[in-house]
Amino acid sequence: MKEKYNYINLKKYKLSLKWILPIFIIILILSFIGFRYIKTLTYKNIYTTISELGKQTVAQLNIAINEQKKFVETMVDSINRGYFKSESEIFDNFADDLENYHFTRLAILDKNGNGITSDGHTVTDYPITDEFFNFNNVYLSENRKSTISNDQINIYSKAFYLNGEERVLFATIYTEKYKEILLRRLYNGLGGTYLINNDGMVLIDSFDVIKENNVNLYDFIINKYNVTNDNKLTEINDMKENIRNKNTGTFDISLNNDTYFVHYENVGINNWYVISIVPASAMAEELNQFIAISLGVCIFINCIVIGICVYIDISNQMKNRKLYKAAYIDPITSLGNENYFKENSNVFLNSLKGNKYILTIDINKFKVMNSLYGYDFCNKLLNAFGEKLEKNMPKNNITCRMYSDVFATIFEYNKDIEQVLEKVNNAVSTIDVDNIKIHLSISIGVYKIKKEDKDINKILDKSYIARKQIKGTYNSYYYMFDQALENLLLKEENIETSMEEALKNREFKIIYQPKFSTSNEKIIGAESLVRWYRNDTIIMPDNFIPLFEKNKFILKLDLYIFEQVCKDLAYWKEKFNANLRVSVNVSKEHFVDENFIDEYVEIANKYNVDRKNLELELTESATIDKSIDLVKIANKIKSYGFSISLDDFGTGYSSLAMLQELPIDVIKIDKIFVDKADLNSKKNMINYIVLIAKQLGTEIVVEGVETKEQADFIKALKCDMIQGYYYSKPIEKESIEKYFIKDDKALI
Q1: What is the rounded CA–CA span in Å between residue 549 and residue 72?
Q2: What are residue 439's DSSP bridge partners?
Q3: What does the pLDDT look like over 74-116, one tens digit per residue?
Q4: Given CA atoms 652, 656, 660, 664 in this order, what sign does their dihedral have?
Q5: Is the pLDDT of residue 321 over 80?
Q6: Confidence (pLDDT) at 743
Q7: Residue 720 belongs to what H/E stretch?
Q8: pLDDT, tens digit, for every residue of 509-543?
Q9: Please, which of 341, 600, 696, 721 could form a disulfide with 515 given CB 3.0 to 4.6 Å?
Q10: Residue 734 class from Cβ within 10 Å (0-12 exposed, 13-18 middle, 19+ buried)?
Q11: Please, what are the domains in the chain?
Q12: DSSP state of 201
């Protein structure tokens, strides 16, 4: 039986050989064809994938650079608007934001390359080229060696004016910081990227194989792999030439028994290129899977092709999913990031028909929490906060973490929006992290989106502006962007866009309010006031002076007013032999540079005006500004022969002790002290001020006198001068000249 059994099996085996051999040959042929086909598809897929990876890497790099440029623009814009008076104020204000944008330090330099850095270094004779000193755009330099350390750095720069002088702001970033963007997850880390310039010099190496600076990538590849083959040298030279011509390309090259897939993509900045490189060995497992499939189902070749196509499609989707996650998902909260929010919100704006709102929310004093609990704990807090926030939003919403502790959400809601705000505030007021209950307070900026709103950046800005209104208040946690805020923004924008033209067209007019002697009620002086005549409308100072002080335009306006007053004084002296003393307001914005008074002297000399008839009026708020050495400035003003008056005295800023330090000639008592409603109750206070002033040899003028009762009251207190509607409202130059004709003996 055994032999029979063996025979039968052997016979079957031989029989099988007749079929197996041709089937085996067919399988080999089909497998070869299938392998070749699969390899072609795989290479095509790899070319597509590595190209997409290169483009995504460039996109991420551009996003990061543009965000950093935008931050520099924001800093310079804030400086130009006059929010800061010194380098230290600038550094202090933006210190907490540097880490968010990966900057190591700021520096402010003059044209000679001299200045200071935000971390206390002094810079001298730094070579500043025209590219750095750019007023229009933010310039990003090539990488260079830091003067402070041996690290390679890049510099973002933009020029601006600080206290009337040209400066340039440097924001420094270690070139290595860009490696965080270039560290793409290419095939489990076996692939990577280089950042080079169009000459091939390596700026960033994500492989960490190039340790030296100023290494040429083409030479490095040729030397590392001992490339001598003409075809391979041609491929490298073709890439070099394409990069010089700003072209993009993909190719594969065999080096040291391995094939490498290479894609080069133009960054669009400084002639930089991203070179993505993936070895074929990184995809061996994937290729083996394809081969196994082809061998298993080679008889059904069509099924093989379908299976391969499905596999490739899934593989691409998985890879794209990873890329998508890196580009659009916040790693801490798993919510969308700022890119996701902006792209999807634009679609959202056009998809729904009901009321749409946008909220931006931040956690108050979050930086303090980071210090108390640490970053890991606070990351968990942000994750829990994001979950609660999204859960308590209306159904149709997009909720994302924008940056740091700032979240944004856009949604459709047709009921009372305060219900949503209250629900959110209650939900996030207490959050449990690691069994620790954290009590939070939040600030919410609310903007109801209009039909005509299409730009998500402008919509976000309005929500941000609304949220800033909450800061420093304790009785509310949200602010609704309203028409008043809209009008204020439009009004300020309109004023700022027209102020230079208005000054050029002489739309700012000077009027004078006379000052009268309490002894004989004759005119002895005047206060110069400004009005803006725009399109047959008079704009009062309260509507533009505060803005001009913020954006520093007040520096130009003050000088303009002073020159007009000097012209009038010269004219009055020549025509009427009048020596009227006129007070001119000087904004404290001038006091950043004590030499500002030299311009006033030059103007007074130009019109040959006696400086004792020019009374420079300081606001009382200047006395509390710690950054101003007011005593030194006032003494310098006096040394040039000008008179000095202190405006708005008694409104709560300065003390009488300040009068002993300052060489004040005239004190202007605010009109609140002569309000008829409680005139007698303030008698002792004015008496006290008058007594001190007399002891210091200082004159007193009382403002806001509107009735005979008030005038008699002031006369009885033996003040020196009276100013107010009881005697005269502010009048034009021609009207004040009538006083000279009426009684020229009244003039001193």
Answers
A1: 23
A2: 430
A3: 999 989 888 888 899 899 898 888 888 888 999 999 989 999 9
A4: positive
A5: no
A6: 55
A7: none
A8: 999 999 999 988 889 999 999 999 988 889 899 88
A9: 721
A10: exposed
A11: 1-306 (3.30.450.20), 338-481 (3.30.70.270), 507-746 (3.20.20.450)
A12: B
Let me know: does 664 contact 693? Beta carbons within 8 Å.
no
Query: Residue 735 is encoded by which pair of tokens?
Result: 């009207």
Q: How confident is the model at residue 184 (pLDDT cuts 50, 70, 90)?
A: low
Provide the b/e sequence for 184-219 (b: ≥16 CB within 10 Å).
bebbeeebbbbbbbeebbbbbbbeeeeeeeebebbe
**Rounded Cα distance, 52 and 316, in Å:** 10
Q: How many C-beta neighbours within 10 Å does residue 418 have?
A: 11
How confident is the model over 203-249, as pLDDT tens digits? Answer: 888 877 887 778 888 888 888 888 888 888 888 899 989 988 889 99
| Average pLDDT, rounded, for the chain | 83
The vertex-691 CA angle with 686 and 695, nearest 5°, equals 145
Distance CA 494, CA 478 (A): 27
**What residues pair up with 173 in beta bridges, in sequence order?**
154
pLDDT at 22 over 60: yes
Asked if pLDDT for residue 353 goes beyond 60, the answer is: yes
Mention every residue, 6+ apart, whose C-beta is less than 8 A from residue 217.
194, 196, 200, 201, 202, 275
Phi (first) and psi of residue 725, to 5 degrees = -65, -20
Pairwise CA distance, residues 358 & 414, whole Å? 13
Q: What distance lies between CA 737 and its chain's CA centroid? A: 51
Other CB atoms closer than 10 Å to residue 343's CB: what's the count? 15
470 contacts: CB under 8 Å, gap ≥ 6:
443, 444, 445, 476, 477, 478, 479
Neighbour tally for 101: CB within 10 Å? 19
Token pair, residue 79, equals 């400086």
- Taking the C-alpha atoms of residue 247 and residue 73, their distance in angstroms, rounded to an integer, is 30
Distance CA 338, CA 66 (A): 13
Separation of alpha carbons 79 and 691, rounded Å: 44
**400's tokens:** 């994302």
**Spatial CA neighbour of 672 closest among 660, 681, 659, 663:** 681
CB 700 within 8 A of CB 692: no
Arithmetic mean of pLDDT, 340-350: 85
pTM value > 0.70: no
Residues 6+ apart with CB under 8 A from 127: 113
Contacts made by residues 731-735, CB under 8 angstroms, sequence distance 24+: 731/511, 731/512, 731/513, 731/514, 732/509, 732/511, 732/512, 733/510, 733/511, 733/512, 733/568
